[in-house]
Design goal:
40% of the residues lie in helices and 19% in strands. With 566 residues, the protein is an alpha/beta fold. The longest helix is centred in the last third of the chain and has 30 residues, at 413-442. The structure holds iron/sulfur cluster (2 copies).
Length: 566
């Protein structure tokens, strides 16, 4: 029998006692799978499947290194509030000095109340028995904390829950997020409120929502009953129609995937994205996180990995997508393009096991999916981008005041202003020169069928506009002109928990520190949900959930029946 191959060593958790234990990631040759194997001295052996496609797993690890997206791309926050890591990772979250990546997304739960009771959800009051709901002023404190992060703060704010639309002050919260400086505001929702009223969708848009993250597990009634307890198939389509009527675009369809329950619906969800391509800009698949004690057989049966998803997408599309890029692939691009115009940067430096993203263009005439690689030499463009970023980082032009060793503080005020202005102009000229160099160099990576480009000229114009004048608004324009981002984030649980991954997490929860309400805790998503959520929310909860699960189920049933009649 062929020898197993050790891919890497890491630290994971014991699913029983949640203590750190060493783990090995191995290529198991007899099953041809990538497995995580670990042993807890007290609770025994555990193993979990990370991938069903070892070749692809190995490729993505090497790819990031080959194109040079991570090297020299340092984003770790440096603020005074960063803690010493005294307890060890992941017990010291909040954030600690071992954390490697800046947050791209600040995620804040507005409440844990919900108007559904989904079997796949662990973050609601019905499941926990208490109500957690930060006040408006506490939210201001959390938002302000995130915007103060240096050197690179999160540009996106994700309002989540529970169900955030249950807050009566939601529009004010959205406006506050915008005022405090977030450039992209995302709302996670089950869509019930949006299905009820076009006017509500309009108000969300007016308040400043840029993206609606709509849970969307499939199109079949049976799928909804299993995943969410009730049939929401028609309600979800109503949400899309209402968003379309209200002009609320930037919708992301978010399927939670459970093997054997809705993994057969992947093509159906992509078809809906295509049908609503004027408002849907992304499909973000999320394989379910497994909680509770389960047998190895059940774990093996239920686990859905990114490799399974990639196979399913290619089965649906006829092998269309050759490469599913790890999220970190674009981590220098997302810094370089905003740098040219002195806009806010973000660096997508997550671990390559955390997920992937790829763009597909939907042909306006034939409605066929076409991968971006047909029109752009992606590898070439990325390598060139990364090299340009390295040049910019290493050879930043010195400011004239530095060259001539001028101590500006000793100058009269008027000369201080002139010195500052001269420095700024030099910096702007340098950025402008590098932008021209980059744009001229990037042109050679475009390729493809001229007829297709002419037919889909909006897509290409928006791509060029995005390159020339980057910013999240341009990304949205690009995505809404016939492009759909197909991506996946594989959240961790105690079975596959991996410190290599969580230390590079770029989705950070914000909560008030229950032990010192003047402080905000900033906790990486997978660490928060696996380890910290319950303890922290219980301390912060101001009241108990008085309703029984039966009462909640009854309320949900009545609500869904009413919606079905409209
Ligand atoms: S996950 Fe990040 S913040 Fe939390 S303990 Fe580990 S390194 Fe520190
Ligand atoms: S949320 Fe989890 S899966 Fe996503 S980047 Fe963070 S650690 Fe990775």
């Amino acid at each position: 029998m062929e020898q197993n191959e050790l891919i890497r060593r890491t630290i994971s958790l014991c699913p029983e006692c949640l203590q750190n234990i060493p783990a090995e990631v191995i290529w198991e040759k007899n099953t041809n799978r990538v497995m995580m194997k670990k042993t807890c001295a007290e609770h025994g052996d555990f193993e979990d499947r990370l991938s069903s496609n070892p070749e692809e797993y190995m490729w993505r690890g090497k790819y990031i290194d080959e194109i040079g997206s991570i090297e020299g791309n340092i984003t770790a926050p440096t603020n005074d509030f960063i803690r010493e890591n005294e307890l060890g990772c992941p017990y010291n979250c909040g954030l600690c000095n071992q954390h490697i990546s800046a947050p791209n997304i600040a995620i804040v739960d507005l409440t844990n109340r919900c108007n559904l009771r989904c079997p796949v959800c662990f973050a609601n009051s019905a499941a926990s028995g208490y109500i957690y709901e930060p006040t408006f002023e506490e939210l201001r404190q959390i938002f302000t904390h995130f915007r103060s992060i240096k050197p690179i703060g999160p540009v996106s704010l994700q309002l989540s829950g529970g169900e955030p639309t249950l807050r009566n002050d939601l529009f004010d919260i959205i406006r506050m997020g915008r005022d405090i400086g977030f450039v992209h505001i995302m709302l996670t929702t089950n869509g019930i409120k949006l299905a009820k009223s076009v006017e509500y969708c309009r108000q969300l848009k007016e308040a400043g929502v840029d993206a609606v993250y709509l849970s969307f597990d499939g199109t079949e009634p049976e799928t909804w009953k299993k995943m969410r307890g009730v049939d929401l198939s028609k309600i979800k389509m109503k949400v899309l129609d209402n968003c379309r009527e209200a002009g609320l675009d930037g919708v992301g369809l978010i399927p939670t995937l459970v093997r054997g329950v809705n993994d057969h619906e992947i093509g159906n969800v992509l078809d809906v994205a295509k049908e609503y391509q004027d408002i849907v800009s992304a499909v973000i698949f999320q394989p379910v996180s497994l909680t509770g004690r389960i047998s190895i057989e059940d774990l093996n049966q239920m686990r859905y990995t990114t490799s399974d998803l990639k196979d399913a997408i290619n089965k649906y599309s006829g092998g269309l997508i050759k490469k599913f890029y790890p999220i970190a692939t674009a981590s220098k691009l997302t810094r370089l393009l905003p740098w040219f115009d002195n806009e806010q940067q973000f660096g997508t430096t997550s671990h390559d096991d955390c997920g992937f993203a790829t763009f597909c263009i939907v042909d306006r005439e034939t409605k066929e999916w076409k991968p971006l690689e047909n029109f752009v030499d992606v590898d070439g463009l990325l390598k060139f981008t990364n090299e340009t970023f390295d040049v910019v980082m290493k050879r930043k032009i010195p400011k004239p005041t530095k060259i001539f060793k001028i101590n500006t503080s000793k100058l009269p005020k008027i000369f201080q202003k002139i010195a500052e202005f001269t420095d700024d102009m030099t910096d702007l000229a340098y950025r402008g020169a590098m932008k021209s160099y980059y744009m001229a160099g990037a042109v050679k990576f475009f390729k493809g069928d001229l007829n297709f480009i002419i037919k889909n000229k909006d897509t290409f114009f928006n791509f060029i506009k995005l390159m020339w004048a980057p910013g999240l608004g341009r990304v949205k324009d690009f995505m809404l002109s016939g492009n759909i981002m197909i991506s996946c984030m594989h959240f961790q649980d105690s079975y596959n928990f991996d410190l290599d991954r969580v230390k590079r997490c770029l989705v950070h929860y914000g909560v008030i520190d229950p032990d010192d309400p003047n402080k905000v805790l900033q906790i990486p998503f997978c660490s928060y949900n696996t380890l910290h959520r319950e303890k922290i929310e219980r301390k912060l909860a101001k009241r108990k959930e008085e309703r029984t699960t039966e009462q909640i189920d009854q309320e949900v049933k009545i609500l869904v029946e009413q919606l079905g009649k409209n």
